[in-house]
Each structure stands twice: as structure tokens, then as C-alpha cells.
């Protein structure tokens, strides 16, 4: 579990985060949502230690991320996996070499042990046998799966995903959501996903944190979205008239059955 206590972050005169206190749960996909400029990316970077808070605390279980020594901080960071928005695969490396890269950087495993783990991770994302291909030789959805395999290669306890469905068609995006959700549940990982995808919110949103102008304005799960009267949430989730009508019809049907 990851927990924040009254996190603030200021850049010059710009207060980006304003007292964020929340929890991200193990074994669940935890989604951070909000419009552009709400503070989502800053919060995500702060959670992984790229930014330090102006004030407040970030706890990984009982470890205060910004109050430990370098050795303890490295130990926490070794438990992090990261899926980047643009996949961040190395074009000059094969799929297998891309997945192996974190092990080359941070472990003393033998080449045989590394190759075995690469195969395990490719099997995990249903991509067996493409070790020798280059990223340019596979589709965007397959590249995303390779990115997930690389993020999982060190068996992380915490997984961070920045816009994992960016640039994907709706069907592939759903498959990626289901894969991330399955890996999260099966491995009891604390997964934090920064997203604009409303299909993700309604599909895998077991814990949803909504930001607006640096404030946490709503937190709940996908089952609570329809019933919530929080105006910011409804304006964000059901921005289009079509989606608003769907919500109204769903509520009418639910109340009729009640």
C-alpha cells in the first residue's frame, strides 16, 4: 500500500498539489484521473520519487520515502515497475534485450537466469517467442505488452502506469486494461495508473482518485461513479451529452428495479 499525507508541491508561485491525503491499495488498480493541469503527472512523479514534496509525506507501507537514507531509498525503488506513456523501448535493442535491460542494470544474475526471466515475462503478457524481434517490427499494442513485461521483470511490488492506453484503439486498450488488472490482482501489486480513458475508469477502476486544480475532490470505485452527486466527477466522466444520457438511463432503470 502507498499512502500520502497532506502532500503539497509548489513550483515558484504555482501551487500544483494542495494537501493530497489518500491511499493506493495493494491488489487493486488505483486510477488517478482529472483534466489537464489537475496535477496528475506531478503526483505520479512524486509517488515514484522523481519530485520531492514541498510538504507532506509519502509512505510505502511504513517507510517514509523522503526520510530514509540512500540505501533504504534504493531498496524501495528496486520494488518499482514503470510503464511509460510512449513505451520508452530502445529501438536498437530487440524485444528480449529491452525486457532484460533492468536486470542488466540492477542485478547480478547470469545471462541464463536473465533469459529465463525474459521468457517468463513474455509468457505473462501472452507474447512468447518474439524475443529476437525489434520494437519497430511489432504493433503498438504489442509494444505496450513488451513495456508491461519489462516493468514486471524485477517482480515489482509497486507498478506505475502513465497513460497506458495512449495511442491504442479501443479494443486493444481494453485488452491492456485487463492485462494490467490481472497482473495486479494475481501478484498483489499496488498499481497506480494515470489515465484519461473513461473505459478504464468504468472497467477497472477499483480505486479512483479525482484531482481538480491540485485538490483531491473525490475518491471511490467504479460502482460509485454513477450514483455520485459530485459535480466535478460527473462533469469529467460524463462530459459528452451521449454519456450523460447513458448515465441518466442507467439510473432510471436502477431506480425502477428498486
Automatic annotation (TrEMBL):
<dbReference type="InterPro" id="IPR017871">
    <property type="entry name" value="ABC_transporter-like_CS"/>
</dbReference>
<keyword id="KW-0813">Transport</keyword>
<keyword id="KW-0067">ATP-binding</keyword>
<feature type="domain" description="ABC transporter">
    <location>
        <begin position="2"/>
        <end position="238"/>
    </location>
</feature>
<dbReference type="InterPro" id="IPR027417">
    <property type="entry name" value="P-loop_NTPase"/>
</dbReference>
<protein>
    <submittedName>
        <fullName>Ribonucleotide transport ATP-binding protein mkl</fullName>
    </submittedName>
</protein>
<dbReference type="InterPro" id="IPR003593">
    <property type="entry name" value="AAA+_ATPase"/>
</dbReference>
<dbReference type="InterPro" id="IPR003439">
    <property type="entry name" value="ABC_transporter-like_ATP-bd"/>
</dbReference>
<dbReference type="Pfam" id="PF00005">
    <property type="entry name" value="ABC_tran"/>
</dbReference>
<dbReference type="GO" id="GO:0005524">
    <property type="term" value="F:ATP binding"/>
</dbReference>
<keyword id="KW-0547">Nucleotide-binding</keyword>
Amino acid at each position: 500500500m502507498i499512502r500520502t499525507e497532506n502532500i503539497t508541491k509548489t513550483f515558484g508561485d504555482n501551487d500544483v498539489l494542495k494537501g493530497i491525503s489518500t491511499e493506493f491499495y495493494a491488489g487493486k488498480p488505483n486510477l488517478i484521473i482529472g483534466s489537464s493541469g489537475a496535477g496528475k503527472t506531478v503526483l505520479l512523479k512524486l509517488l515514484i520519487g522523481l519530485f520531492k514534496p514541498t510538504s507532506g509525506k509519502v509512505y510505502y507501507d511504513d517507510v517514509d520515502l523522503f526520510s530514509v537514507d540512500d540505501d533504504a531509498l534504493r531498496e524501495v525503488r528496486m520494488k518499482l515497475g514503470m510503464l511509460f506513456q510512449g513505451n520508452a523501448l530502445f529501438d536498437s535493442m530487440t524485444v528480449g534485450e529491452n525486457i532484460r535491460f533492468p536486470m542488466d542494470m540492477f542485478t547480478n544474475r547470469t545471462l541464463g537466469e536473465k533469459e529465463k526471466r525474459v521468457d517468463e515475462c513474455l509468457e505473462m503478457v501472452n507474447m512468447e517467442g518474439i524475443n529476437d524481434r525489434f520494437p519497430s517490427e511489432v504493433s503498438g499494442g504489442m509494444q505496450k505488452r513488451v513495456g508491461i513485461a519489462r516493468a514486471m521483470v524485477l517482480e515489482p511490488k509497486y507498478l506505475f502506469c502513465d497513460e497506458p492506453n495512449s495511442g491504442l484503439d479501443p479494443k486493444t486498450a481494453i485488452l491492456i486494461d485487463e492485462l494490467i488488472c490481472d497482473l495486479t490482482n494475481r501478484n498483489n501489486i499496488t498499481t497506480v495508473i494515470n489515465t484519461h480513458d473513461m473505459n478504464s475508469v468504468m472497467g477497472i477502476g477499483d480505486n479512483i482518485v479525482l484531482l481538480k486544480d491540485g485538490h483531491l475532490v473525490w475518491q471511490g470505485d467504479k460502482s460509485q461513479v454513477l450514483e455520485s452527486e459530485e459535480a466535478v466527477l460527473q462533469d469529467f466522466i460524463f462530459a459528452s451529452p451521449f454519456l450523460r444520457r447513458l448515465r441518466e438511463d442507467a439510473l432510471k432503470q436502477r431506480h425502477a428495479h428498486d
